[in-house]
Amino acid sequence: AEAQKRNLVAYVPQSEEVDWNFPVLVEDVVMMGRYGHMNWLRIPTRRDREKVGEALERVGMSAYRGRQIGELSGGQKKRVFLARALAQEGRVILLDEPFTGVDVKTEEQIIALLRELRDEGCVILVSTHNLGSVPEFCDRAVLINRRVLAAGKTKDVFTPANLERAFGGVLRHFTLAGAELHDDEDPRRLTVISDDERPFVVYGEEEEGDEETESRPEGKEGDGPAS
User: Is the pLDDT of residue 209 over 50?
Assistant: First the structure.
C-alpha cells in the first residue's frame, strides 16, 4: 500500500490486456503514469508535461505523441507503455511478457533500456517465456511451474535441466554434436531449447557431467524491420 501511495511500482502490461480500440493519444497514455503525482482533478503541471516528453524521447516515440495508440505497431505500443512506466518515476518496474509481438530490433532496444534503468538503481521484474533473452540481461532468475522450482543467479538457475523441469513437454529440445556442425573436430555439442519464441542456445561438452558450458541467445526466426 505504501509503495502504491508513493508511486514506487510501475507496471507494463501484456498487449492482450489493453483495449487498442479505445480512442486515446500516445501522449495521454504516457500521461497516465503521472496520475499518482497529480491532485484529484488530474490537471497536468509543467513538470508532468516535461516528464512525459522525456519519457517519450527516451523510448524513441516523440514523433508519435499525437497519434492514436491503436494505430501503432506492436513494438511501438510496447515502447509507449514503457514510456508510461518511466513517466511514473517508479523504482520497481514490472513487465509482463515485454518481448511478445515485437521484432528483434525493438527487443534489443527494450533490453538496452532495462539495463540502463538497472544501472540507475531500478529493480526490474520480468515475466517472460522468451528464453533466449533471459541470460542476456537478467541477473537473477526464478523458474515457476505452479511452485518455485529454482531461484538464484541466472548462470546457475537457467540450465537445460531446470528448463525441462519448468516447461515439461512444451519445449522443443534439439542436441547436435559439434562434429556435425563444423568442419573442424570441435567436440562440443550444441543444445537448442525453444517454445517457439527466441531460443536458448547452450554450448557444452559431449561428455555427461562436464561443468563447462557457454550459453547465448539466438535471434528470432523471420527477423523483420524495426517497429
Answer: no
Same domain, 7 and 116: yes
Question: What's the Cα-to-Cα distance from 73 to each of 64, 149, 227, rounded to whole Å?
Answer: 11, 36, 6
What whole-number distance in Å separates Cα of residue 99 and Cα of residue 129?
Answer: 9
Which amino acid is present at 12?
V
| % of the chain exceeding 70 in pLDDT | 71
Phi then psi for residue 71, to 5 deg, are -85, -10
125 contacts 93 by C-beta, under 8 angstroms: yes
Domain end, chosen from 74, 103, 128, is at 128
Between 38 and 3, the higher pLDDT residue: 38
pLDDT at 177: 58
Strands (E), the chain: 9-12, 92-96, 123-127, 140-144, 148-153, 172-177, 189-194, 200-204, 213-217
* 206 grid coordinates: 559431449
Question: Is residue 1 classed as helix, strand or coil in its secondary structure?
Answer: coil
